[in-house]
Amino acid sequence: MIQSKVDSRFLGTIQDTFHGLPPMPEPVKNFFMFLAAGFLLLLIGYWLKRYGAKKFLFDLLKKTPLGLHVEDKDQEGRSGGAAGNLSRSGEPWKVTSDRDILDKLVMSQMQVDVLVERSGQRSLAAVVNAAGVEKLDVVVTFKDLVSDDLLVPGTQVKCIFPEMIRDKKKVNAFVGVITSKSENKGMVITRQSSFGFIKRRVFARRKVADQRYIKIKIWRLEAEDYDVDFILDNIESDVLIDNRKFHTPNPAVPQVLDISKGGIALTAIFRQGGNVIARTDKVLLCMLIYQPARKTFQPHLIYAEARAARPMGRGMTRLSFQFLRSLAIPPRKRSTLFKGQAVMAMSLAHPEREN
Known about the structure:
By secondary structure, the chain is α+β, with helices and mostly antiparallel strands. It has helices at residues 2-19, 26-51, 53-62, 73-78, 98-107, 228-234, 341-349, and strands spanning 93-95, 111-118, 121-134, 137-145, 156-166, 169-182, 186-191, 206-207, 214-220, 239-241, 255-259, 263-268, 282-291, 296-313, 316-326. Keywords: Membrane, Transmembrane, Transmembrane helix.
């Protein structure tokens, strides 16, 4: 109680003391205001000199209470976005010579796709950045090593980079051969051609409008000497996509996203207790595609390789596969690859009969 009274009296004395000070003269007030403003300007000048105006404004806006989001365009370009591959006008770089193209590749750290011919089609083996040039040799560092086993010294590769304009024509590629390779770091590619233009995608992708028209089963293969008959008869598939009712596009439902002559992309849930499929895994892919003219499902059995596997959350994974070769389907399995295969075909042929 005594301590409380002492504290209250002490605080009251302090309040009275400061309250009782004479008001500050106007010239003194102005002096301190100008002094504070000058100090603030010096601080801003220091930050601009040290970090640059762009970095300063980026950090300032990032911390505003309005929740503004400002992208760092330079960082986006270096990480593979389009910004680093365009001129200041937003158009593709205009170049005049081979040396000019190579200088742009090295200085802007453009992303270059290295493709290898396999099974009659191109396969992405690596994503690289050009690090240096010496005569016909291009030194590259790995950004994403997709298929290490395809990048053997002596292998011919096609290197595709973002488009540039030369003599009013598009250029985006050159053909070369791997001269040497450093494990997980990079390699040297010797150019064997002039710069030209190559289409990135050979086969057109097609969206699947009605998921009932396509059925998918996928088994991950443990070895190259697999037995198709044994797998189809005795092993449950690791991935199953069998939508028997029409669904509007829904990311929560396993489905085929797109398909082409060279591959397929889909979202799937791995069977509980089954194999998880990762990039570069070889798979056996069984597919039924409904043929409206024949009113039946056409079966396909394909040996394929997983080119991408990305978790999407909630147990869903986005998978992309490259078709490597078609396999013969055992005659006795053509009409029994999926349960109720004939009934499904009849249902699609006569939708009015559905309850």
